[in-house]
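Hey, resending since the last one bounced:
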Amino acid sequence: MSQTMKIAFQGEPGANSHIAIVEAFPDAEPKPCATFEDALSAISSGEADLGMIPIENSVAGRVADIHHLLPQSGLFIVGEWFLPIRHQLMAPRGATLDGIKTVESHVHALGQCRRIIRKLGIKGIVAADTAGSARIVAERGDKTCAAIASRLAADIYGLDILAEDVEDETHNTTRFVVLAREPKWADKGSGPLVTSFVFRVRNLPAALYKAMGGFATNGVNMTKLESYMVEGNFFATQFFADVDGHPEDQNLTYALEELKFFSKELRIVGVYPAHPFRVAFTEKNGR
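The C-alpha cells again:
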C-alpha cells in the first residue's frame, strides 16, 4: 500500500495554506508547522514530501520571509497554486454581531477587512495567524470576541460564522509555490510554463540594465523581479525572478546566457506548469 504524501505548511489547521493543500492535493496529509523555517526544514529532512508556501498576495504584496529563506534553503519549486482568499467573521456558538467587541486575526487579514471592522465599531487585535486566532477564540469561549479566518477554520474549531466573505477586495488572491527537495523540471512544450531563478549581478555600472536586456531583445515575458539584500549588505543585492517559458526554449536560452554574462551567480530554482489562474487573469485583463 502506498504511503500518503505529506505536505508541510506554516500555520495551524484551517490556515489558507491548509486550504491550498486540500485543493491542489486532495489525497495528501497536510503537516502544520509553527514557522516558515520549520516548514522548509520538514521538507529538507524528509519529514514532509513537499511544502505549500505563500509567496505573494495581490493585496498585501510579497511574503517577505519566504523571499529571504527560499534562495538559501536549497529547495526547488515544482509547482504553483493561486487561492482566492475569503475571510469569514466567526465567534463562539450563540454569539451575535451586535455583541462583538473585539476581533483578532493575522495583521494582513485585519488590514484586508477594514470595512466591516469599521462598520461594526469593534477593536482589531493582531494575532500570529488566522487559524490560530480562530482556535484561541474557540478555546476562550467569550461571545464578545470574534476571529477572522477561513470557513475551514470555523468548521475545525466549532465556531459560528456571523458574516461571510468580509474581505474588502474581491480580487484578494494568494500565490503559493510547491517546494521539493529535488528539482523536477516540467517537460518542454507541455503547456504554459514558468521558470524561476535567483541571480546576483556583477558590481559594474548598469549591470542590471544590461542583464535584463536579453529578456527584452529575445521577447521573454518577465512576470516577477524582486530584490533582496544579502547578509545585511547594502551593496550586495540578490534578485528573484519569474519568466514565462522553459530554459530550453531558444529565446529563453539566449536571454539566460546574456544574464549569466553579467551575473556572478545564477541558479534556476524551478521550471513548472503555470497555474490556470495566470491564463484567466491575462484574458480578463486583455493582455
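Residues 19 and 152 are 7 Å apart (CA to CA).

Sorry for the duplicate.
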